[in-house]
Amino acid sequence: MPSSEPRQKLWIETDGQLVMSDYRVRLLELVAETGSLAEAASALGLSYRRAWGKVKEIEANLGRPLVRSEVGGAGGGRTLLTPAAEQIVTAYRRFQQRVEEDVEGAYDDELRDLLTPP
Amino acid sequence: MPSSEPRQKLWIETDGQLVMSDYRVRLLELVAETGSLAEAASALGLSYRRAWGKVKEIEANLGRPLVRSEVGGAGGGRTLLTPAAEQIVTAYRRFQQRVEEDVEGAYDDELRDLLTPP
Questions:
Q1: Residues in chain A closer than 8 A to B14 (CB atoms)
Q2: Which of A19, B14, B23, B42 has the largest CB neighbor count within 10 A?
Q3: In whole angstroms, what is the distance from residue B88 CA to residue B100 CA?
Q4: A86 found inside a domain
Q5: Residues A15, B9: C-beta atoms closer than 8 Å
């Protein structure tokens, strides 16, 4: 039997301006995972230029740097998250996880039976 | 000082198919408020045809009628929600309200301080 499921999209605004979202957090997370903005961009199907622009926009909105470059070394340098960005990514994932659980609970209590096809 | 706020969008899927959303519930609610699908459509900037199509699509997905027509009377007939649709609209609003409160709470606990510009 088909069962209905709740979905949600979350984002954060400051004065009506988008400052953080599921998508932007994913971009930062991919930078951390790959050590490269180019690879993070490619994983999301973005041009490097566009990914870079997004990171700079989030930095401007939040008023602090989120990525930093480490030059040299075997791989010829990599891009890392700043401690502030790491903290934000971790906290956002906790926030998102908690909301997901809340949405499931509220849905089970209020809507699931009503929306399941007879 | 600018303060950051969480936003969310909710919807319900059955087998990957959209069956209910903030927007669709608003459409049904407007039918109930105005007694007219034409007025509900106009309030959302939709053509009558498109609004009608949306209602029929939701009915098909949920497997039950959501609106009914009452003919005659002083105004020359009106469109009403079925009891099932009224129940769904009320329950969805409760679901939405509860999630909004949960999102605010989770945001205050996990993210607000981190995302407020210095």
A1: 2-5, 115, 117
A2: A19
A3: 18
A4: yes
A5: no
- Domain residues for A46? 11-115
The enclosing domain of A38 has a CATH number of 1.10.10.10
Q: What does the block give as tokens for A23?
A: 């998508």
Judge contact between A30 and A44, C-beta under 8 A. Answer: yes
Q: How many domains, in total, are found in chain A?
A: 1
Q: Verify whether the Cβ–Cβ distance B20 to A115 is below 8 Å.
A: yes
Chain-chain contact of B88 with A19 (C-beta, under 8 angstroms): no
Q: At what angle do helices A48-62 and A22-34 cross, to 10 degrees?
A: 110
The partner residue sitting opposite B9, judged by closest CB among A9, A19, A110, is: A9
Q: Which of B97, B26, B117 is nearest to A13 (CA)?
A: B117
In a domain, B77, yes or no: yes
Strands (E) across chain A are located at: 4-14, 17-21, 67-70, 78-81
The percentage of residues in chain B with a pLDDT greater than 90, rounded to a whole number, is 75
B3 within domain boundaries = no
Q: Which residues of chain A have a CB within 8 Å of the CB of B91?
A: 110-111, 114
- Reported ipTM: the value is 0.85
The candidate with the shortest Cα–Cα distance to B61, out of B26, B27, B12, B25, is: B12
Least confident of A10-14, A29-33, B42-46, B113-117: B113-117
- Give domain status of residue A6, yes or no: no
Sign of CA dihedral A53, A77, A87, A26: positive
Q: State the DSSP code for A116.
A: S
Residue partners of A93: CB distance under 8 A and separation at least 6: A25
